[in-house]
Amino acid sequence: MRIAVIGAGNIGGALGKRWAAAGHAVSFGVRDPQDPKHQALTADNVQVKGLREATKATDVIVLAVPFKAVQETLEQIGRTNGKIIIDCTNAIPNPPEGFESTAEAIAAWTGSGRVIKAFNNTGFGNVKNPRYGELAIDTFICGDDAEAKAVVFQLALEAHFSVIDAGPLSAAKHLESFARFWIHLAYSQNMGVNIAFKLLQR
Ligand SMILES: NC(=O)c1ccc[n+]([C@@H]2O[C@H](COP(=O)([O-])OP(=O)(O)OC[C@H]3O[C@@H](n4cnc5c(N)ncnc54)[C@H](OP(=O)(O)O)[C@@H]3O)[C@@H](O)[C@H]2O)c1
Q1: 13: which of 7, 55, 130, 198 lies 20 to 30 Å off by Cα?
Q2: Across all residues in the chain, what is the average pLDDT?
């Protein structure tokens, strides 16, 4: 699969490297591809490009930039032409005005029915390494397009998560609250970043 990862920071960098290692063609979309800080990203199936260039010949666009930069980033990317859009963002402390979640804002701004919320609901250390001993931590995804969600489900497995389908895109508000709760435990409750959630079922 050809994956454009927009933003090569903590989250984008971790996911892009993982998917490249799994054999996907990854193009990182960054504001300044010539910036020497991106040199460490390049590998056989990894390229670093400008924002629009990175998304041109890809099936999936991963938004891993600060939420405040999303609208401007989308404008620079231009039409998303039915590509799957993975929204990893969190708006802290509240969802964007007029929306219940960043994912629904992104769906409205792009006019896309193929936005999937994913990889927002735990810290980047857990995205880099989702294993706790024998266990894979749970990551929750949601979206309205079944085919797009199946693709993201598989990409989450390849990133070494255990994956839970949390339903339609309207559930993104719960995934984003969940991220705020993780941040609360990690930082306000001083539990640190090596914490993660596992859903029990019987
Ligand atoms: N950190 C976490 O633990 C975590 C967990 C879950 C979700 N998230 C969400 O994931 C997204 C990315 O977080 P991150 O921790 O990966 O952030 P980060 O390390 O700061 O990386 C952000 C990336 O966005 C790019 N960017 C583009 N436009 C930008 C702008 N106007 N201002 C700043 N950066 C801009 C930066 O690239 P250039 O500067 O090179 O262009 C950088 O590579 C955020 O929405 C965050 O809420 C973060």
Answers
A1: 198
A2: 97
Distance 72 CA to ligand 1 centre (A): 14
What's phi and psi for 136, nearest 5 deg?
-100, 135
Q: How far is the CA of 7 from the centre of ligand 1 (A)?
A: 6
Give me the phi and psi of 166, to 5 degrees please.
-95, 10
Residue keyed to tokens 């699969």 = 1
SS3 10: helix
Question: How long is the chain?
Answer: 202
When pLDDT is averaged across residues 155-164 and rounded to a whole number, the result is: 98
Cβ count within 10 A of residue 114: 23
Question: Alpha-carbon distance 149 to 126, whole Å?
Answer: 21
Residue with the smallest CA separation from ligand 1 atom 21 is 9
Site residues for ligand 1, CB cut-off 6 Å: 7-12, 30-31, 64-67, 69, 73, 88-90, 120, 123-124, 179
Task: Write out the two tokens for 22.
Answer: 């799994």
- Which residues face 139 on adjacent strands? 163
CB 4 within 8 A of CB 27: yes
Q: What is the mean pLDDT of residues 87-103?
A: 96
